[in-house]
Design goal:
The chain is about 75% helix and about 5% strand. The chain has about 500 residues and is an alpha+beta fold.
Length: about 500
């Protein structure tokens, strides 16, 4: 049986392949995937993954699921559903861009500096810790927790700065330390002690320079390069000394020729033909003379460079003036952004308070008591369990508990206009139902006025009879739903119109 099903599936797959049906839709969905991938990358380039990590991670997860289903020739509907979820998650993430970048600005700057220094490679542990704290800061942005965001942003900034320093040290001092290790293996401390000690002093000085000012790396880099050169030189001297010590008499000629070859290479680079007939000293003097001539040429070039620098300074002053004007403009924009931040913060706080209020309202009623519906700035309390005797508008004692809950909810909106609306099922005459619904709405209004501090002009009552059913009147269950009282609350405080 299973084998026959596999054969049928195989045949169907072959048929689809031949007809090209999936292929046509597959090309369309592939374009959609590429488009969503680009949207994700665009958001990452704006550092949305930092200011809203939870929503951004959700978008990445849904995109991966969509691609996996595409690779396995899954259902087009499933793939499109997940791509839609990616876009929804990105939309949710983008709403935090402005406030997030304001709250995380210094931490993001520190992150960029650390990344530029190579921290992910040279300071992997510190970088990982900083990324974790930055993610926590972004999660606080999503929760509207400004104090928590600022606290974690400071922690992330400090950790990124530490990672940056470790990376700079590895970059600037790494080669010198590697040369020291090689020299140590050659026993340079023993065979070239003075040179090794000089290299060590240069390396320590470079470390001090880097600690005092990490961003002025030129001095530290120069010292580190000199230390590297000295360590390499110490290692070479140690190797030479060990060879001489092993068999001095046999190696004298070879060592002389080796030194002459080195000096000869320098002479040839200066377009000189070395003649060692009189020894190495005359050739060395000639090399020194040629180098002196090069220094004279350099002096002339330096004078020309000095003149150029005067012109550059003039241009720099012009540019500095322009930059100052730009900075002033940016300061103005920053002030505007800070003002915008305060407005956004107030809006987020108000929104969170409103959402919390709605959560409290919804948790007030049981599922069989009432339904809370939100539409724009209106809230409707649809009271299913507020019932009346047939043809009666008298509120019975068994409804007092529900009406007490209604009063508790209405106190959340103390000055908001209210409308109590009555509804019936379709049984009976239209005029009778209309009158009955009005009397029931009036009864609820009078009850609330008697038990709450509400101005009479704040609350009104309207009867709609059977004109607004929410379920079918063809059965008892639907008729029970249609017999209801609804209370409409204006959450904005504005008068309710368009009923």
């Amino acid at each position: 049986m299973i084998f026959r099903r596999l054969l049928r599936i195989s045949a169907l797959a072959t048929l689809l392949s031949v007809s090209g049906i999936w292929g046509v839709y597959g090309q369309d969905i592939e374009d959609d995937i590429k488009q969503v991938e680009q949207q994700l990358e665009d958001a990452r380039s704006k550092q949305i993954d930092l200011v809203s990590p939870r929503h951004f991670s959700e978008a990445e997860k849904r995109l991966a699921e969509a691609k996996d289903r595409y690779d396995r020739s899954g259902k087009i509907e499933d793939i499109r559903k997940r791509l839609a979820e990616v876009r929804t998650a990105l939309t949710s993430a983008m709403q935090y861009e402005e406030v997030g970048k304001v709250l995380l600005r210094t931490a993001i700057e520190a992150r960029n500096a650390a990344a530029e220094a190579g921290a992910p490679e040279f300071a992997a542990t510190e970088w990982k810790n900083a990324e974790k704290i930055m993610q926590e800061a972004g999660e606080r942005v999503e929760k509207g927790d400004q104090n928590g965001t600022r606290d974690r942003a400071r922690g992330a900034e400090q950790t990124y700065r530490a990672a940056e320093l470790v990376a700079i040290r590895a970059d600037v001092l790494g080669k010198a330390r590697s040369a020291r290790s090689s020299a140590t293996q050659s026993e340079a401390q023993k065979w070239a002690a003075a040179t090794f000690a000089d290299a060590g002093a240069l390396l320590r000085q470079a470390e001090r320079e880097l600690t005092e000012n990490r961003y002025d790396r030129s001095g530290a880099r120069n010292l580190a390069q000199r230390a590297q050169s000295q360590f390499t030189r110490a290692g070479r001297i140690a190797q030479t000394a060990q060879r001489v010590d092993d068999d001095a008499k046999k190696r004298v000629e070879a060592l002389v020729l080796e030194q002459e070859a080195l000096v000869g290479r320098v002479a040839e680079s200066l377009n000189r033909v070395p003649d060692f007939a009189e020894g190495i000293e005359p050739v060395t003097d000639e090399v020194v003379s040629a180098v002196g001539s090069l220094y004279d040429d350099r002096s002339n070039l330096q004078e020309e460079l000095s003149r150029k620098n005067v012109e550059i300074d003039r241009l720099r002053n012009v540019e500095m003036k322009r930059l100052k004007e730009l900075v002033d403009s940016l300061d103005t924009r920053l002030a505007m952004l800070e003002q915008r931040e305060r407005a956004v913060t107030a809006e987020l706080r108000e929104r969170n308070e409103e959402e919390e209020k709605i959560r409290r309202v919804k948790s007030t009623f049981g599922a069989d008591e009432a339904e809370v519906l939100i539409s724009g700035d209106r809230m409707m309390l649809r009271l299913y369990s507020l019932t009346f005797a047939s043809g009666s508008a008298e509120i019975r004692p068994d409804n007092f508990s529900l009406l007490t809950k209604v009063q508790r909810v209405l106190r959340e909106f103390p000055n908001s206009p209210l409308i109590v609306s009555g509804h019936t099922d379709s049984r009976g005459y239209d005029a009778t139902n209309l009158s009955l619904s009005q009397r029931r709405a009036d009864a609820v209004r009078e009850y609330l006025l008697a038990n709450m501090s509400i101005d009479e002009g704040q609350i009104s009552a309207m009867g709609f009879g059977e004109s607004r059913p929410i379920a079918s009147n063809d059965n008892a269950q639907g008729q029970a739903k249609n017999r209801r009282i609804e209370i409409i609350v204006s959450m904005s405080g504005e008068p309710i119109s368009g009923m």
